[in-house]
Structures are given as C-alpha cells and as structure tokens.
C-alpha cells in the first residue's frame, strides 16, 4: 500500500513541477482576467479554444456555474456532443469512460436494464429492493432519483453529464456516499431549431430521436424532445428436445407480477418524452419541466452458468429429528435442488424412510387450493412414463452464452414520469434565491427465468410502485468583490411505495409471496462557503445536517408452508396443521416452527410497522492553491452517510424484523487540475483514501438474498485524466484509475454465511470489495478532418481496459468478471452546410464478453448471469435545421 501512496504523490508532484515550469510563459484565458477566473470562464465555456486547444466545460457541481477546471472536486464531465459521438445513450454506458467508476445496466435477478448498479471508488449498491438505498446519487436537473429502478436514464437531449467522485453529502445530500451523477438537460433555445436522428443496426435496431426549440415570445420558450427505440434480443430461447419437458407445470401456474415468455431475451422497446418551458424576466427565471418514460421490453438476457444439486443439506436426511424430515447436522439430507431430484426419483419406501411424504406431496396449502400443484413423489419410478419429470442438473447448460432452454418469464415493463418547477430570483446583485420543486412516480414490473430450463426452478418477478416529492431551496451569492461564494439551503424529501416479490423455487417446494411497504421522510439543512482572499489561496467549508425517518412493513409468506411440512406438521395433500402438536415440544406447530402471525399461519415476516430514525452531520473542509493561471492544487476532507433499513427477502420465519445500520465514509483527497501548452494539454490528477464503515451488502443466506452490514473497509486510489490537443482537429482523451479496496474488518454474522467454499472465495479481512476493478484505463482519440468540399469527416475510437472484478459480495467464482478490453469505433461525415451527418460505427468490436451481473443460489442449485452485449454495428443519420 505504501507503493500506491508514493505513486499518487509522484503523479501530483509531477503535475506541480510542470506547473512551475509553465511560469516561464504564464497563460491567460482569452479575453479573461487572471484575478477573476469565473468571469473569463463564462465567456470561454461557450466555445472551443480558438487555438484548437481543449475546450472548457461549465458544470454546476457546487450549485453554481463554473469551469470544471476551477472546481476542487474530482469530476468526469461529458458534453452532449461527446456523448452522441461515442454512442452513449444511457448512464450505464458511461462506465468505460470514467476512471474508478463501475456502472452496470441491471442488478442481480432484477431482470431489467433500466435498473442501475452504480459504484464510484468502491462504494455503491447492487440491488433494487425498496429497503436499500443507492450509494451513488442520480440527479436529473437537480432532482434526486430515489430508486435504482429507472435510474439508468436514457440520455435524451442532455446538455452534459457530471460524474462527481467521493462523498458529496454537503451539497447533494441523500445517499451520495460514493459520489453523484448529475444529468443536466438542455434548456430551450431562443430561436427555432429542430434536430433529429434515426439509427439502425444489429438485432433489428431502430431508434428515432428528435428535439425542437419553440420560441413563443421574447421571454418565453419551449423545448420538446422524444425518443423511440426497438431492438430484438441477442439471446435466443431454444427448445429442449426431451419430451419430458412438457410434463413440468406451466410457469403460469405459480404467482407472478405478470406473464410473458418471449423467443429472445435482451431486447428493447421503449419511448421517452421530455418537455421544458422557460420564462426569463428581469429578475426572475421560471423553468417548468416534465418527462415520461414507457418501457415494454424483454428483460435482461440470463444465461445458466451452472447447477449444484448434490450439496448436502438439512432436508429429508437419514439423521432426522424424530417425527420430522429435518436433519440438524446438514450432512445426510438435501437442499432444494437435491430434494426435488430425490422426490421424483425415489420410491414410496425410500421417501417414507426420510419422512419426506409431505415434502414430496402436493405443493401448496389449504389456504389457496387454486395454486395447488400435483405431488412429485416417485413420479419417475411409479411405472407410469406419462408423468415422468426432468431432473434439474447440468443438462440445461447449452454451452453458448446466447442461447437458453428457458420457457418462463422474461419481461420488463416500466412507466415513469415526473414534473418539476425551478424558480430563480435575483433580489439583489450577486444574490440568487432558487427553488426546485419536484414530483415523480414509478410503476415497474419485471420477470426473470433464472434456471434456464423448462422447469420452474428459479422463477422471479417483481412489482414496484413508488412516488416521491422533494423541495429544495438554495440561497447563492458572492461577497467581497467575488472573493467569497456561498450556498445555503434546505431540503425536504418524502417517498412512499412498495415492492412485491414473487419467487418460485424448485418447482414450487418454496413459493415466496412478499409484499413490502416503505415510507421515508428526510429533512436537511446545508451550507458551503468558498473563500479566496488572495489569488494564491482559497478555502472551502461546508456541512449538511440530515434527519431521516423510515417506516417499513414486510409481508413475506411461503405459499407452500415448507417449514410445516419439514417438521411433520402437514400431510401429503398439502394441508398444514398450524394448531396441531409440534413433534419436538409441547407447543403448537406454528409456535414450534416460529411463524410469527397467528392471523396468517404461512407468513414468515414479523407483522407490524417498523420504524427507524437517523441523524447525521456530514462536513467538508478543503483548501486550494493557484500557483499560476489554469493550475489549481487542492486538498479536502469530507464525510458521507447513507441511512440503514431492514432486510426483507427472508424465507424462514422471523420473530422480529431484522434491521441493518447506516453506512459512513470519511475521505481524504489531494488533487491538481491544470492546463498547459497554450491549452493543448489538460491534466487532472487525484489521490484519495477512504475509511468506509458499516458496508451494506447483499449476502445469500439459504435461498434468501439478505442485506447486512458486512464490516469496514479501507479504500485507496489514484486517478489521472488527460486531454491532449496536439494539432488542430485531433483530440485524445485518456484516463487511468487505480484502486485498492479491501475489508479491514468483517462482522461475525457475515463470516458465518460467507466463508470460503467450493463455489466461492468468501468474505474475510483482506478480501477485495465487489464491483471494483483494481485498474481501469481508457483512451479515446478523436480526429476531425475538413475536406476540400467544405464537408467534415470525424474519426473516433474508444479503448477501455479493466482488470477482473468480483460481481457479488460472496465472491462467487463462476460470476467473476475477467480482465476485459473493449473497443468501439465510428466514422462520421458531416455535409458542408452542417444540415445532416451520417455516422457508421461498431461497439465491442472484438466481441469481448463478460458478466455484468448475476446471482448464485446454492440452496436452490442455480447459478445464472447476464453477459455484456456482443459485437454490434449501427448507422445513424442526423439532421439539423
């Protein structure tokens, strides 16, 4: 680790030495005043450097417009033009362009590419459940998106995207412990303009987008933008030729949030609409905005990676407790996959010897006979070949990443919309009072066939409804001849909704039906001052106080009443006896098995509304040095915070709800931002160390993915971003990120469920954190050539290299992402008048495939994952007038 720190210091020292050398010919912004860099920035930001150098980018990372080079925060900023030329259409596609950032479309078993798994500098969240908040905040025009569902936003007619690294709790607040991604959409123009494009490509891609600026009066203008995208899936479902496949129960025979079995997976069918209305008065500006997204697609492409039917377990052993089918040693029985295979292949005597008549009997209970499924006991040995069933094992591995024997659900349906109103009032010179009021609503359903077979071995579906309201007020201004900039504000947020889980394991041996409801209220006050008393030196002081109140009620139940059947409290016809005698103690079966709700004998989650309250103060302190024009060195200390919650996906009876605590991060950072050689070289570097406490991660506990505080970690890293413009028309963007993120302590409860085993490397002190590649490198050259006829040719390439990464907290071997190299390239022709542009390109040209997400369920015997998209081509025609 000492070598990493030395490397970081060496990089920053090199930048500083270059800055000192540059004093020989000090630079000034074109038309600018070195004593007033922001005024100079405002002029230069609107246009590229006249000398063909690196253009400026204006950002609002500190709630005011500034040149990104003057903000003492590590930021990767992307303009609208850069996003379009690189074919970046969603937030997840930014992943390869920003160092120490990992963005994936989809989380384990979400089944939807609209769900975002976001990690910055080793901190984030890889889940979509309502009970866990994201660790990287996503903002659209200053409005926070509370759910990871729908957070993988289509970047439709944006002005820029800012990726802020490290805790951003002071100014951005809720759940920005890892960082923030701020999407800024384009404001209406003052003149009439129409811009549109249509794209075709691999897998029958058809995408059309358009935007129009509509000036209404001198002070009032509107903008309307739309986008439509359809594409067939790259994974094909193929029939399993064994006729026994037809004997399995239909996937529609089990509860689900919906039903759809397509012929391919990984497709798109969505459309978006956004509108803005902006009025500018003498001292007041009012912006009204609205957006609507509709998705009706196949879900993520899921590949079966492996099965595990022979792992010993507690069910139907030869060393069972008297009167039960429960083996406390966990050595002579089965888990769910093994139990299913045993049931269909054992005769009556063998099943009776293990007290497994009820386990192998009717699937379902007397409380809903419409959901009953036929017994599976001995069907393959009863002399009747017409009812034989397929075992679950490796026969369903196709050997091809892009084919599957799945016959169950695969869909993602989402409706998301929101409205916001932003009012900016300038009551006095250098003073602005700003209000952002917003309402958003989300309705989402998805379905996943995780088992990759004609069986119903791991069928997952979800339904989420959520609404949120937020109100933010900011007072911004400058004092002392622009030497002091301040931001003071207040924030209110309320969210309410629920997530309903439906999961069928092992042909219905376990059937989870889990309604969950959550309500959150958040209050915060924040402030920051940036004071530069002399041109050489500046200081930043800020802080945010937050109070958050949460309410939660879980309703998880098992429609098969498996534990009653396991402990001898049911019959082979599916009838359970909650009030009958428990075989191991003089109590009822419901009491003995621990089911917590007398009114609902199959409910496993403790009834009642649970509450938690959290309070936090997140400070920030920073200093800046400006040795020469266009060079800034900075150091900062900041804290981040994310509230806790409750784990929900439990399948064994729980006497009480299981809460988890908050996360905290403390980060030290040093960095430098610089431009040299007449703005032909821009070099930004940062080194950081983070103390990360109470890490919230998803750990598999039996069949249940449960959220736990895993322990603590130390994260250290370095990142370097460079832009070089050596000649007119040629610009090369490059970045390097190195990060070392390891556990420094692991809580005993985590050790118990995540010890190393034959399938997993496990979680322990010194182990790497998930979703965090050690090295990430990107090089993106762009060359613009002016042809003799006045036309322009643009050549663009991207290369991203990332070292291997663990995709899950327990570090499952089959889910590990290898070292990857991704190449993209395009060529564009812009006609002399600039009215139209034709672009042809390819993504993942070398076809390097890797797992973006996945899940292991050893208890159910299933390992599955989603591979990145294969090599694809596209052609786009864009017009503007």
From TrEMBL:
* Gene Ontology biological process terms from the UniProt entry: iron ion transport
Predominant location: membrane
Designated name of the protein: TonB-dependent receptor
Locations of Low complexity compositional bias? 34-49
Alphabetical list of PROSITE patterns matching this protein: TONB_DEPENDENT_REC_3
Q: Top-down, what is the taxonomic lineage of the species of origin?
A: Bacteria, Pseudomonadati, Pseudomonadota, Alphaproteobacteria, Sphingomonadales
* Alphabetical keyword list: Cell outer membrane, Ion transport, Iron, Iron transport, Membrane, Receptor, Signal, TonB box, Transmembrane, Transmembrane beta strand, Transport
GO cellular component term of the entry, any: cell outer membrane
InterPro entries found in the cross-reference section: Beta-barrel_TonB, Beta-barrel_TonB_sf, Plug_dom, TonB-dep_rcpt-like
Location of the TonB-dependent receptor plug domain? 68-180
| Membrane topology annotation | Multi-pass membrane protein
Return the similarity comment. Answer: Belongs to the TonB-dependent receptor family.
Q: Where is this region: Disordered?
A: 26-49
Localization terms from the record: Cell outer membrane
Tell me where in this chain the TonB-dependent receptor-like beta-barrel domain is found: 382-845
Signal peptide range: 1-22
* Superkingdom assignment: Bacteria
């Amino acid at each position: 680790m000492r070598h990493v720190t030395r490397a970081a210091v060496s990089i920053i020292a090199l930048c500083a030495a270059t800055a000192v050398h540059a004093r020989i010919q000090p630079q000034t912004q074109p038309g600018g005043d070195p004593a007033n860099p922001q005024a100079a920035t405002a002029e230069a930001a609107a246009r590229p450097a006249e000398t063909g150098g690196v253009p400026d980018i204006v950002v609002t990372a500190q709630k005011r417009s500034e040149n990104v080079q003057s903000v003492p925060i590590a930021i990767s900023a992307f303009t609208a033009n850069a996003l379009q030329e690189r074919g970046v259409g969603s937030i997840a596609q930014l992943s390869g362009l920003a160092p120490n950032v990992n963005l994936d479309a989809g989380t384990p078993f979400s089944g939807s590419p609209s769900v975002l798994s976001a990690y910055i500098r080793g901190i984030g969240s890889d889940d979509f459940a309502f009970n866990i908040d994201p660790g990287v905040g996503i903002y659209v025009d200053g409005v926070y998106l509370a759910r990871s569902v729908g957070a993988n936003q289509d970047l439709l007619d944006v002005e820029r995207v800012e990726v802020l690294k490290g805790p951003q709790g002071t100014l951005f607040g809720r759940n920005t412990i890892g960082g923030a991604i701020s999407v800024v959409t384009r404001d209406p123009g003052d003149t009439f303009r129409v811009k549109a494009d249509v794209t075709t490509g691999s897998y029958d891609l058809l995408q059309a987008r358009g935007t129009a600026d509509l000036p209404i009066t001198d002070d009032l203008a509107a903008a309307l933008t739309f986008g439509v995208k359809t594409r067939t899936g790259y994974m094909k479902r193929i029939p399993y030729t064994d006729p026994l496949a037809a004997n399995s129960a239909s996937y529609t025979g089990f509860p689900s949030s919906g039903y759809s079995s397509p012929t391919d997976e990984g497709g798109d069918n969505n459309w978006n609409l956004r509108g803005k209305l902006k009025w500018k008065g003498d001292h007041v500006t009012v912006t009204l905005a609205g957006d609507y997204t509709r998705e009706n697609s196949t879900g993520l492409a899921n590949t079966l990676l492996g099965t595990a039917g022979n792992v010993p377990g507690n069910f139907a052993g030869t060393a069972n407790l008297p009167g039960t089918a429960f083996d406390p040693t966990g050595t002579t029985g089965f888990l769910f996959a093994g139990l299913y295979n045993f049931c269909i292949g054992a005769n009556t005597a063998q099943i009776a010897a293990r007290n497994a008549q009820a386990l192998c009997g009717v699937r379902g209970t007397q409380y809903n006979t419409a959901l009953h499924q036929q017994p599976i006991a001995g069907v393959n040995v009863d002399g009747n070949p017409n009812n034989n069933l397929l075992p679950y094992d490796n026969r369903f591995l196709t050997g091809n990443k892009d084919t599957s024997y799945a016959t169950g659900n695969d869909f993602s349906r989402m409706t998301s919309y929101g409205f916001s109103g932003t009012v900016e009032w300038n009551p006095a010179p250098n003073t602005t009072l700003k209000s952002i009021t917003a309402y958003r609503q989300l309705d989402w359903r998805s379905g996943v066939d995780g088992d990759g077979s004609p069986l119903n071995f791991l069928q997952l579906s979800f339904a989420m409804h959520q609404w949120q309201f937020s109100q933010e007020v900011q007072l911004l201004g400058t004092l002392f001849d622009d030497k002091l900039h301040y931001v003071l504000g207040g924030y209110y947020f309320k969210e309410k909704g629920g997530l309903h889980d439906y999961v069928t394991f092992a042909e219905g041996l376990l059937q989870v039906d889990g309604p969950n409801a959550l309500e959150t209220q958040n209050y915060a006050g924040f402030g920051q001052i940036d004071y530069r008393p002399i041109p050489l030196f500046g200081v930043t002081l800020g802080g945010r106080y937050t109070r958050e109140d949460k309410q939660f009620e879980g309703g998880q139940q098992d429609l098969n009443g498996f534990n009653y059947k396991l402990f001898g409290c049911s019959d082979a016809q599916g009838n359970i006896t909650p009030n009958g005698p428990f075989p191991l103690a003089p109590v009822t079966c419901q009491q003995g098995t621990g089911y917590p709700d007398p009114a609902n004998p199959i409910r496993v989650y403790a009834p009642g509304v649970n509450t938690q309250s959290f309070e936090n103060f997140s400070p920030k302190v920073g200093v800046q040095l400006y040795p020469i024009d266009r060079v800034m060195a900075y150091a900062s200390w900041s804290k981040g915070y994310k509230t806790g919650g409750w784990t929900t996906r439990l399948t064994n009876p729980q006497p009480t709800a299981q809460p988890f605590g908050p996360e905290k991060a403390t980060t030290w950072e040093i960095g430098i931002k610089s431009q040299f050689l007449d703005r032909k070289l821009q070099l930004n570097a940062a080194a950081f160390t983070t103390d990360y406490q109470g890490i919230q991660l998803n750990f598999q506990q039996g069949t249940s993915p449960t959220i736990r505080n895993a322990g603590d970690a130390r994260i250290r890293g370095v990142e370097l971003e460079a832009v070089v413009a050596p000649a007119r028309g040629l610009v090369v963007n490059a970045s390097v990120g190195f990060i070392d993120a390891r556990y420094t302590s692991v809580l005993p409860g985590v050790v118990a469920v995540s010890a190393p085993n034959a399938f997993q490397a496990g979680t322990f002190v010194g182990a790497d954190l998930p979703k965090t590649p050690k090295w990430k490198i990107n090089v993106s050259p762009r060359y613009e050539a002016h042809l003799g006829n006045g036309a322009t040719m643009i050549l663009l390439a991207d290369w991203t290299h990332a070292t291997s990464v663990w995709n899950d907290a327990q570090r499952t071997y089959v889910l590990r992402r290898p070292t990857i190299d991704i190449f993209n390239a395009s060529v564009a022709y812009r006609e002399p008048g600039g009215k139209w542009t034709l672009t042809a390109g390819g993504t993942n040209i070398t076809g390097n495939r890797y797992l973006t997400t996945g899940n292991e369920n050893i208890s159910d015997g299933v390992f599955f994952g989603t591979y990145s998209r294969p090599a694809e081509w596209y052609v786009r025609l864009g017009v503007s007038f």
